[in-house]
Amino acid sequence: FLDMLRFLGRVVVVTGAGNGLGKEYALAFGARGASVVVNDLGGNTSGDSSQSSRPADEVVKLIQASGGKAVADYNSVENGKAVIQTAIDNFGRIDILVNNAGILRDKSFVNMTEQDWDLVHRIHLRAAYSLTHAAWPYMRKQQFGRVIFTTSTSGLYGNFGQANYSAAKMGLVGLSNTLSFEGAKYNITCNAIAPTAFSRLTQGLLPSGAEENLKPEFVMPLVLYLCHESCSDTGSLFEVAGGWIGKVRLQKSSGAMVRRANAPMTAEDVRDNWKDIISFAKPLYHLTQADQVSHIMNVVETISNNDEKTTNDIFTQTFS
Ligand code: NAI
C-alpha cells in the first residue's frame, strides 16, 4: 500500500466520536497514523443532561490497542476552546477538525419549544462555530487545516418534525461556504457532508433491513479523503451513504427578466412570467457570489425597451 493515505504527524479532533459516525472516523484516523482527540460527552440522543466518559474512553482504548495515539475529551462541543485546547495540550497542534457531534429534538413545529430550538442550534451550529473559531488561528499559522461540517439531507431538503435541526444543518452549509473562502489562502479547506447511516440517532428513522448497507464505515472514507493533505477540494457539499458519494450544488432556473424599461415592475409581470421563472429547462450554476452578481449585471442589460408606461401611469390606472 505505497499510495495509502496516511496521517502521520497530523492531529485530529473528532467531535461526538464515542458513537456512530464519529467513532468510525476516529478509529480510521487512529489506524492511519494520526493523533486523535476523541471528543464525546457521552450524552443521550436528545442532549438531556446525562453524561458519561465511557464512550470516549472505549474509542481511545480501541485506538491504543491497535498501536494508535488517542486521548479522550469529555467537554461539550459548546465549549470549542476547551476541546481544541485538549489537542494542543496533548499533541501540540491541531490539523484536522471533524464537526460531527449531534443530537435530535424532533417535534412538529407547533409543539417545538424554545429549548428544543436553542439546544439543537447550540450543539450543531454554534458548537461548529466555537470549535472552528478556536482551531482557526492554529491552522492559519501553520498554513494547513482541514475542516468537515456535518449537515443533513433534512437540512438540504427539509423534513417533517425537524425545523430546529434542518435550520441548524443548513446553517452549517453557509458556514462551510464562507470559511472555504476565508481559509483558501492558508491552505485550510472546509467541506460539508450530508451522511446517511444507521446509528442510535437514526434508530427507527431509516428503512428497516438496510442496516448492512447503511453502515457508518461506508461514510468514513470520504471524510478521510477530504481531510488528507492531498485533497484540496474546498467549499464542497457531498451526500454520502451506503458507499455512494455525490457532490451537491445549488441550481437555479434561467429565470425571466420581468421588468421593462420605463415601467414599474408589478406582481402581474411576475404572474405572467411564472412559467419561465420556475422552469429548470436550462439550469444555471454559480459557484461564487461574484459569479452571481456578474450574472445579475448582465441580465439587467436585457430589459426590453418596448413599454413606455411610467410608474405614474400605473398608479393612475390603479387608484383613479
Ligand atoms: P450518534 O448519536 O451515534 O453519535 C453522536 C455522538 O455525539 C454521541 O456519541 C453523543 O454523545 C455525542 N454528542 C452529543 N452531544 C454532544 C456534545 N454536546 N458534546 C460532545 N459530544 C456530543 O449520531 P450519528 O448518527 O453518528 O451522528 C453524527 C452526526 O451526523 C450528527 O451531527 C448528525 O446530525 C449527523 N447526521 C447523521 C445522519 C445519520 O444517518 N446517522 C444523517 C444526517 C446527519
From TrEMBL:
Transmembrane stretches, by residue range?
Answer: none
Q: Which residues form the Ketoreductase domain?
A: 10-196
Q: Where in the cell is it found?
A: Peroxisome
- Which family does the UniProt entry place this protein in? Belongs to the short-chain dehydrogenases/reductases (SDR) family.
Question: Per its record, how is this protein called by name?
Answer: Peroxisomal multifunctional enzyme type 2
